[in-house]
Specification:
The structure holds 2 protein chains of 2 kinds.
Chain A: E1 3-5, E2 10-14, E3 19-21, E4 24-26, E5 32-39, E6 46-52, E7 60-61, E8 64-69, E9 74-79, E10 88-96, E11 102-104, E12 108-113
Parallel strand pairs in A: 2-12
Antiparallel strand pairs in A: 1-4, 3-9, 5-6, 5-10, 7-8, 8-9, 10-11, 10-12
Chain B: E1 4-7, E2 10-13, E3 19-25, E4 31-37, E5 43-51, E6 54-57, E7 64-66, E8 76-78, E9 87-94, E10 107-108, E11 112-116
Parallel strand pairs in B: 2-11
Antiparallel strand pairs in B: 1-3, 3-8, 4-5, 4-9, 5-6, 7-8, 9-10, 9-11
Classes of the chains: A mainly beta, B mainly beta.
Chain lengths: 114, 117
């Protein structure tokens, strides 16, 4: 069975500091994709970053980077130089190589403190 | 540049009523999905479609029906609403299932908050 685990229900970070949001996954598929989405209080789901399991290098998108450790089955999101607008729920998700199933974690609530 | 459009944004239903959540995308995506999000939980897949005329069940399909007559539209029908269907519903679409290009990134609608009393 596929599973995504986010063990941090809530996190706080000082503005301009870096923060790491944890995500571990469980799959027996040889290939898969890993995603992070942001959900602000307004409710929409915003795509942040993607990592394919075959990628040798960690994905980066601006202030977001995905710390992918395949052997440990972890896909942590690192946000550098936190901003007040980063306060939101963050969801880790995984897609299978068949593509028709996405599995979401329960989310981490991030609060950026001025 | 509308992306994925869902209507209505909010709705209150009485137990036993039926309704349809509308979803339209203008990105020519073949793959469309309906998810529900319960408080404190991640998203769970209700139904998905790989193209016009083709739909399949996800993880939590009971109490719902879908149809896909066009590439653009993927409505979700709730029959005989129950309090357990109180949730936020998200429609999403993706260009493909390819892991190589990352084209399987989901684009979400703004969500529809449904309350069944």
């Amino acid at each position: 069975a596929q599973k995504i685990t986010q063990t941090q229900p809530g996190m706080f970070v000082q503005e301009k500091e870096a923060v790491t949001l944890d995500c571990t996954y469980d799959t027996s598929d040889p290939s898969y994709g890993l995603f992070w989405y942001k959900q602000p209080s307004s409710g929409e789901m915003i795509f942040l970053i993607y990592q394919g399991s075959y990628d040798q290098q960690n994905a980066t998108e601006g202030r977001y980077s995905l710390n992918f450790q395949k052997a440990r089955k972890s896909a942590n999101l690192v946000i550098s130089a936190s901003q007040l607008g980063d306060s939101a729920m963050y969801f880790c998700a995984m897609s299978r190589d068949t593509g028709n199933q996405f599995y979401f974690g329960t989310g981490t609530s991030l609060t950026v403190i001025p | 540049n509308a992306g994925v459009t869902q209507t209505p944004k909010f709705r209150i239903l009485k137990i036993g009523q039926s309704m349809t959540l509308q979803c339209t995308q203008d990105m020519n995506h073949n793959y469309m999905y309906w998810y529900r999000q319960d408080p404190g939980m991640g998203l769970k897949l209700i139904y998905y479609s790989v193209g016009a005329g083709i739909t399949d069940k996800g993880e939590v399909p009971n109490g719902y029906n879908v149809s896909r007559s066009t590439t653009e539209d993927f409505p979700l029908r709730l029959e005989l609403a129950a309090p357990s269907q109180t949730s936020v519903y998200f429609c999403a679409s993706s260009r493909s299932w390819s892991l190589v290009t990352g084209a399987n990134v989901l684009t979400f609608g703004a969500g529809s908050r449904l309350t069944v009393l």
